[in-house]
Design brief:
GO terms for molecular function: DNA binding. The protein is of the alpha+beta class. Helix content is 43%, strand content 12%.
């Protein structure tokens, strides 16, 4: 039964509203209320499926893919621009999926296609129909973890929603309820290093402590790279891709330009959340670090080239250098627990928020996230908090 006024599909942070009998979507992006209206009868079941598909697409772009189209053009109703003849036979999930890929291949990051889409391509039977989805879910659950299955189903749900929007599939989207039924373990608690732990970690890198006897090079070579991430909160892929040209003066202030990432052995232009460029203000501490970095001749003019003068291999660095060193510090009692190299980003964001020197919207802007995403995924709990006497 369709609610008279408004409702939210389960797990989707977009409201579908009855506005004078027509459909309107309401949601929040970067702390601002956003509205998209469609000239569709609110009480028509087919139109409700279109609205749910659009709401899901918006939700996924904001919270899952971080590729929200601020012009909203992507979320408008579009004519059937792409011809795709499915014939008169019952449409298969494979046909729906291929249609979705045809439309979305230029919008979705290459890494997402490689990691997520490939799983669907490998497991999807060519003759599987929409009403046989439960059988496919059982196959997935026997093969992958629930979190992976949920991501796969979210992509397939989006593909069905798109086919509904284009009139390619006339029916309900059964995956929405299946996703609801999947009990996925709660996300891990966000944690960060303390100030003293950061100082200790940087000291270990700078002075080559715990350096293995058979190490081929000094780990201190990566000190500047690690320190840079602690002082900027950049994603590893962003820090690896920074060039000397990305640091410049403007209006008597030094800026760091973040406009590319190194992912899966290739440079991807733009930031992870779909913004072309993010500007990061360089303070005195960061400027002193940058000024101390020797310029190493390399073909890509990288600020942090690898030993081989190419891009740093993040996986290799994380497993062979970062993890062993942090575990040594944990064993020595100098660091409370092991946190991944990516958690350096959590550490920067957490300490900047606790400093009280900047508001959440400004912090979210310079680190490349929305405020809700920042709070949900990056801000660690302060375990050392002692409540004051209030009364």
């Amino acid at each position: 039964m369709i609610p008279d006024k408004s409702f939210r599909p389960h797990g989707i942070k977009v409201t579908i509203q009855n506005r004078s009998g027509l459909i309107r979507l309401l949601y929040t992006y970067k702390g601002k209320r956003e509205i998209i209206s469609y000239p569709l009868n609110y009480f028509d079941p087919q139109n409700q499926q279109i609205a749910i598909a659009k709401a899901t697409e918006i939700h996924n772009d904001i919270y899952l893919y971080q590729k929200y189209d601020e012009t909203k053009e992507k979320y408008q109703l579009k004519p059937k621009l792409i011809k795709h003849d499915f014939g008169q036979k019952e449409i298969t999930i494979r046909e729906i999926w291929e249609f979705y890929k045809e439309l979305k291949k230029e919008e979705i990051a290459t890494n997402t296609q490689k990691n997520n889409w490939s799983k669907i391509d490998k497991t999807l039977d060519d003759n599987l129909t929409v009403d046989q989805i439960p059988n496919y879910v059982i196959l997935l659950l026997n093969k992958y973890a629930k979190t992976t299955v949920k991501r796969i189903l979210q992509d397939l749900s989006a593909s069905i929603g798109l086919s509904i929007s284009f009139g390619k599939f006339r029916g309900d989207n059964p995956i929405l309820k299946i996703i609801e039924s999947l009990e996925v373990n709660k996300k891990k608690t966000i944690k960060s290093f303390t100030k003293n732990e950061v100082i200790t970690i940087l000291d270990v890198f700078k002075n080559d402590k715990y350096l293995p006897e058979k190490a081929l090079y000094n780990y201190s070579y990566y000190y500047n790279f690690v320190a840079f991430r602690f002082l900027t909160g950049t994603r590893p892929s962003e820090a690896i891709a920074v060039t000397w040209n990305d640091i410049f003066e403007k209006h008597k202030k030094t800026w760091l330009r973040i406009n590319k990432r190194y992912v899966s052995n290739e440079i991807i232009l733009g930031t992870k959340n779909g913004v072309d460029i993010r500007m990061f203000p360089v303070n005195d501490q960061l400027k002193d670090l940058i000024d101390s970095i020797p310029k190493i001749d390399n073909p890509n003019n990288l600020l942090f080239p690898s030993i081989n003068k190419t891009y740093i291999d993040r996986k290799n660095f994380s497993t062979r250098i970062w993890k062993p060193l942090i575990l040594k510090l944990v064993n020595e009692g100098l660091v409370k627990e092991y946190l991944t190299f990516y958690d350096v980003r959590h550490t920067f964001i957490t300490h900047l928020c606790r400093s009280g020197k900047a508001d959440l919207q400004t912090i979210a802007n310079i680190v490349g996230n929305s405020v809700p995403t920042l709070i949900k995924n990056y801000l660690a709990v302060d375990d050392s908090l002692e409540l004051p006497e209030l009364f």
